[in-house]
Amino acid sequence: MSGVASLGLRSSGSYGSLQQSNGQSPAPAPSPPLAARKAGKMSFGGAGAGGRGLLSARICKLTSRRRRILLLLLVAAAVLFCFLFSSLVSKDEDAPPGIETMLGISDQVRSFVNPVWTSSGRPITQGDSLSGNGLNTASQTEKQSDSDSSHKKLQGLSWSFPPSIVLEHHPCENFSFSPPPIDRKRTGPRPCPVCYVPVEQALALMPGAPSASPVLRSLNYLSGDNLISKESNHGSLFGGYPSLEERDKSYDIKDSMTVHCGFARGKIPGVNTGFDIDRADLSEMWQCQGIVVASAIFGNYDIMQQPENISVFSKDTVCFFMFLDEETEAAIKNTTKIDNSKRIGLWRVVVVRNLPYSDARRNGKVPKLLLHRLFPNVRYSIWIDGKLKLVRDPYQLLERFLWRKNVSFAISRHYRRFDVFEEAEANKVGGKYDNASIDYQIEFYKREGLTHYSSAKLPITSDVPEGCVIIREHIPITNLFTCLWFNEVDRFTSRDQLSFSTVRDKIRKRVNWTADMFLDCERRDFVVQAYHRELWEQILRSPPPPQPRLARQQPRKMLPDNTAKEPGKASGSKRVSAKRTRDKKSGSKRAHRSKVTGGKEFIQL
Questions:
Q1: Which domain holds residue 320?
Q2: Signal peptide location in the record (predicted)?
Q3: Is the bond preceding 30 in cis, omega lying within 30 degrees of 0?
Q4: Fewest CB atoms less than 10 Å from the CB: which of 34, 234, 423, 475?
Q5: At what angle do helices 420-429 and 435-447 cross, to 10 degrees?
């Protein structure tokens, strides 16, 4: 047993100490706890291998314990990693509305560009069609096939999402505004530098939730069949003939409101209401959601301009709609082919019939101010007049003029005029509308309290917009603003610059909301203005201006050296002209030319 004496045995009284052996076998009593274990599991030999069995058991026990601890650590690390990853991905859902940072393209961005919902909460599919006053569902077979095609379209769309990015600081936070650069050839209004972010960064800065609508939560619209005019000079049948009393009540902003907002003769805008649209076009307009860029040409007044510098992602997710009347459609068909998809370039063409007004400019105010009624599922809209060409991506414009400022309505101010009274006089001088109607509108507003613009209205920077571009979010308060603005255009003149400040200030007095006005030079950076069709055709028909005729220079005759230089010869006069500099140096006060006629010399000054 001397082979095991050197190892020693643990004492029963102390688990951490060893009892040294004196060369004899240990006493059989009391037996250590390890002796109670089965020998077959602890030793590989006879009694002489008992010590080695004890050591092997301890090593196996320690090894298995370390494995268990290592396994627990690995499980804990995996749980911690999953928790951190899920918190990062859901960061955009927990962040407050406004400008925020988003990791990659979250589900809320994908849902922003993919699903479409009706007012009842049911998604619109391509199998839905308009019938009567509502939506009728197509057959099950058609819905299944449309669902498959829609799934394939969305599957292809997922490849066009920009790559994931992380923004710690806004790329334009150090950008400083600078006025338009000096250009001697362009003395009028010019574009100024504007800081935009790339499209993928604009998506990362998209608000996760709609902007708050102060006070107003639900907005409904008046309609009826038996509309009768009870007052003179107060609107049209399309607008519903709102009385002055109804006009005043529409500014009493409450949680839920019902106001006049065009399309007063029917329940569905565009269906037997005036400004009528084909059912197939309406169905596609209702399927549009997310962002719509809209424009219109009525009376063949402008030349259609194609947007430029539009990203592939925006071409897949943004709707581009161009409204035309039948006159403009006929003129376009003479020079341009409209395919079966009713598209000309990026524009999806919609032909409007049964126009409510005889004035083409007033008809243009319907889609300009009532886009929320024509596109009920859209969250953001960008309106541009038919004479303008869009040269920036829609996501960049929304980020620059809405999301970065945390506003819901943006319009540029006039480049020169800030006062409504000055704008009215300019309209009369330019023959924009008959003078009596303009004077009546301004006098009406003066009785309501309209004053000249001054610094006392700050932070409002202008009372006169350049209304050819409107960028807005479709929420109840902005929808109310454009409804009431349209009612003023319907009641008074079609010059919407005259009524803008009145509607804005009336709403601003009651709720904490106003329309943001950016610089006109910033607007000129993202749209390019073209000539109206009539003016452009006049320029093309007019002959080019005559070029100034340059005097043909006669070749100079060289005289031989021995030729006499008579004073009456032309060469003599040329010599005087050639020595003009020398004459000046010699003190002559005036260079002159001599001419000899009949032996007398005359001086020509």
A1: 220-538
A2: none
A3: yes
A4: 34
A5: 170
H/E element holding 322?
Answer: strand 318-325
* Any domain includes 193: no
pLDDT at 24 exceeding the cut of 90: no
Q: Cβ neighbours of residue 304 under 8 Å, at least 6 residues apart?
A: 297, 322, 332, 336, 344, 347, 386
The answer to whether 534 and 542 are in contact (CB under 8 A) is no
Q: Count the alpha carbons within 13 Å of 208 in the hemisphere toward its beta carbon.
A: 17
Q: DSSP E strands: which ranges in 29-137?
A: 128-131, 134-137
The answer as to whether 370 is a domain residue is: yes
Q: Could you tell me the two tokens for 278?
A: 């084909």
CA distance 385 to 488: 19
In sequence order, what DSSP letters do the residues of 285-312 get, joined into one string? Answer: HHH--EEEEEEEE-TT-S------S--H
The DSSP secondary-structure symbol of 561 reads T
Retrieve residue 202's tokens.
Answer: 């604009």
Strand pairing partners for 349?
A: 322
Residue linked to tokens 């610094």 = 455
Provide the domain count of the chain. 1
Nearest CA to 180 out of 168, 192, 172 is that of 192
Tokens coding 40: 């077959």
How many other C-beta atoms can be found within 10 angstroms of the C-beta atom of residue 68? Answer: 10
Query: Would residue 345 count as lying in a domain?
Result: yes
CB-based contact 268:348 (threshold 8 Å): no
Q: Which residue has the higher pLDDT, 132 or 226?
A: 226
Contact between 296 and 320 (Cβ < 8 Å): no
Residue 476: partners with Cβ closer than 8 Å, 6 or more residues away: 213, 216, 217, 218, 219
Nearest alpha carbon to residue 375 among 284, 460, 509: 284
Q: How far apart are CA 67 and CA 51, in angstroms?
A: 25
Min mean pLDDT across 299-303, 330-334, 421-425, 549-553 is at 549-553
Q: Is 551 helix (H, G, I), strand (E, B) or coil?
A: coil
Q: Please give the DSSP secondary-structure letter assigned to residue 123.
A: B
Question: Whole-angstrom Cα distance, residue 10 to residue 269?
Answer: 95
The label of the residue with tokens 């990693």 reads 81
- pLDDT grade, residue 524 (50/70/90)? very high
The residue type found at 263 is F
Give the phi and the psi of residue 437 in degrees, each rounded to 5.
-70, -40
* Nearest-angstrom CA–CA distance, 96 and 258: 30
Q: Is residue 128 part of a domain?
A: no
If you count them, how many residues does the chain have? 605
What is the distance, to the nearest Å, from the Cα of residue 573 to the centroid of all Cα atoms in its chain? 72
Hey, what are 453's tokens?
Answer: 């613009």
Which one, of 133, 128, 119, lies nearest residue 268 by Cα? 133
* Lowest mean pLDDT across 26-30, 213-217, 361-365, 488-492: 26-30
CA–CA distance, 52 with 492 (Å, rounded to integer): 108
Q: Directed axis angle between helix 496-508 and helix 420-429, to 10°?
A: 170
Rounded Cα distance, 369 and 526, in Å: 21
